[in-house]
Specification:
Blueprint (H helix, E strand, L loop, with lengths): L8 H6 L13 H9 L14 E3 L8 E3 L9 E4 L12 H6 L4 E4 L11 E4 L3 H12 L8 E6 L4 H12 L7 E3 L3 E3 L4 E3 L7 H13 L4 E5 L2 H5 L10 E4 L7 H4 L2 H13 L8 E5 L3 H8 L6 E6 L6 E8 L4 E7 L2 E7 L4 H16 L4 H4 L14 E2 L7 E5 L4 H14 L4 E7 L7 H12 L2 E6 L7 H9 L8 E3 L3 H11 L5 E5 L6 E3 L4 E3 L2 H16 L1
Parallel strand pairs: 2-3, 3-4, 4-5, 6-10, 6-11, 7-10, 11-12, 12-13, 13-14, 18-22, 19-20, 19-22, 20-21
Antiparallel strand pairs: 1-5, 7-8, 8-9, 14-15, 15-16, 17-18, 23-24
Length: about 525
């Protein structure tokens, strides 16, 4: 949580125990601050508590869900995670100064100086308490939540760009970074835990933001990270195969996404913007709450916000943007058919919160794009190199279809499949690459704790032409081999990691940025050839 939440350090200091002395001086400032501290009872309703032990009127200095981040006077939430169980660290949290514990079971051995609160679901309690602790920051913002398999990062960045002005900053929570209004910090997770989310929304509110765009992952919905959050607009981009190792099936995956739209997170959005070109989008429209304003988008003629006369070029996309009150010609620096859908999603979200599309459409020309999303690496070489985050078969197919149509020479691909993820999509990704690429190099993505040999075995079942694909374990070497082959007019896309600056293995994370590696290798090869 360091760097994402700000602590009230004077309040934390007021909870510190003074050393035992014969005459202890009276610190009147600390006493006054301590008396002003919020109390546990301020943040819990009777229905939230299954059982308790200790004083519920005890003051607290803040919230924590990681025992290593506990400060004096904190309320610690013991969450059961996939890697570690927070209940095992209750004693550690107390030793660091926690004065109250929230858990799904009160420990058999307790401390007389600590309050224990038993709840039915600790993650649910964390979300509700965090929202109350930060004084419902989501209700002070026009919050645009974007969910779907692909396009979330591009759409949220587009919404931010279209809504922002020189006088008004717009917050952002997403895969690349978090813009908190007064500062921008690196992202570590697409949808953070609820404590961090409400804390960041509070920083946006306090910095003067009136709108914010947020990526909402299926994990974030299912794990109550956005529970109770009031979205002004919920946007649905599409649904393709992904995260089935977690959700089990496409129907379960869709059902989780649908919670954002139908009130399944505790509140329903005031408006929804849904992709009518996607079959799951049509299902969402049919099941939308009666009270919600429904805005459809797409290239379908019945879509409310739609694109007509689409012209796809290598460096731009031109189209006619149509909505119920008007139409305007727009040109975007984003390329590819799938980015037409992303553009429409962003415009539909802005339209849903009452913006005049004729006014904001002109801002599209200055959109610089998103890091790691079809990002060109240009060092003056006579061929094209692009780095993209595509890590599903659908995303790869969309990207390669576009590049195939505009590349005069050969199309090369470096790609991989992440470890400890849906194994069934690996042959589909390989097949998609082989359908379009002249040659491909399959390599490591983020293997995590899974053997690269196992990942390669799964990928090989999708091979259709073994002569046109090589399996190279080392990602840097795979990129180097691909750069050895490209010539003037060719295009190389390095897919899977996009903006990421690391590579994740079983027991370590090492620095690795596809963009930096490409620049280094091109420079080295120029020196060797010169």
């Amino acid at each position: 949580m360091i760097g994402y939440l700000t602590h009230n350090y004077p309040l934390v200091a007021a909870f510190r125990s003074l050393p035992a002395t014969r005459r202890r001086p009276v610190d009147r400032v600390s006493q006054r601050i301590f008396k002003m501290a919020p109390k546990l009872s301020d943040f819990f309703n009777d229905a939230d508590i299954v059982a308790s032990k200790g004083d519920l009127d005890r003051p607290i200095s803040g919230l924590a869900m990681d025992s290593r981040r506990v400060l004096h006077g904190n309320l610690y939430f013991a969450l059961a995670g996939r890697r570690a169980d927070g209940n095992q660290f209750i004693d550690a949290a107390i030793s660091r100064g926690a004065v109250a514990i929230v858990a799904e079971k009160i420990p058999s051995v307790t401390s007389a100086r600590v309050t224990y609160i038993q709840v039915a679901d600790a993650r649910r309690a964390l979300a509700l308490v965090s929202q109350r602790y930060y004084k419902f920051p989501d209700r002070s913002l026009d919050l645009v939540g974007v969910t779907g398999t692909n396009g979330k990062t591009t759409v949220t960045n587009l919404v931010k760009h279209l809504l922002a002005t020189s006088q008004q900053r717009v917050g952002l929570i997403g895969t690349v970074n978090y813009d908190l209004g007064a500062r921008i910090v690196p992202s570590y997770r697409t949808t953070p835990e609820s404590l961090e989310l409400f804390g960041m929304l509070a920083q946006m509110r306090d910095a003067g933001c009136r709108q914010a765009a947020m990526e909402v992952s299926s994990h974030g919905i299912d794990q109550h990270r956005v529970l109770g959050m009031q979205f002004g607009v919920a946007v649905f981009t599409n649904l393709t195969r992904d995260h089935l190792d977690y959700h089990g099936s496409m129907d379960e995956y869709f059902a989780v996404k649908a919670r954002l739209f139908n009130g399944g997170i505790g509140t329903a959005p005031r408006a929804v913007a849904v992709n009518l070109d996607d079959p799951y989008g049509r299902r969402l429209v049919a099941a939308a709450p009666a009270a919600a304003k429904v805005i459809t988008f797409g290239e379908a003629p019945e879509a409310m916000v739609r694109a007509e006369n689409v012209q796809l070029n290598f460096k731009s996309t031109a189209l006619t943007l149509v909505w119920p009150e008007g139409r305007v010609e727009v040109e975007s620096p984003l390329v590819g058919r799938y980015n037409v859908s992303n553009l429409l999603a962003a415009f539909a979200a802005c339209y849903a919160i009452g913006r005049d599309l004729a006014v904001i459409a002109s801002r599209l020309k200055s959109f610089a794009g998103v890091a790691g999303r079809m990002e060109p690496i240009d060092t003056g070489q006579p061929y094209n190199v692009l780095v993209d985050y595509a890590h599903t078969d659908d995303a790869l197919r969309n990207a390669l279809t576009m590049l195939r149509a505009i590349t005069p020479g050969r199309l090369f691909v470096v790609f991989g499949c992440g470890g400890n993820r849906d194994r069934a999509k690996r042959p589909l990704m390989t097949a998609a690459v082989q359908e379009f690429a002249d040659h491909a190099w399959a390599t490591a993505d983020n293997p995590r704790s899974e053997a690269i040999t196992q990942i390669f075995d799964d990928m090989r079942t999708g091979v259709t032409n073994a002569a046109d694909i090589a399996f190279i374990e080392d990602r840097r070497r795979a990129i180097s081999l691909a750069l050895d082959q490209v010539r003037a007019g060719d295009c190389l896309i390095i897919a899977g990691k996009g903006h990421e600056t690391f590579q994740e293995f079983a027991d370590t994370i090492v620095p690795f940025d596809d963009r930096q590696v490409v620049r280094e290798l091109i420079a080295i090869k120029k020196i060797k050839s010169g």
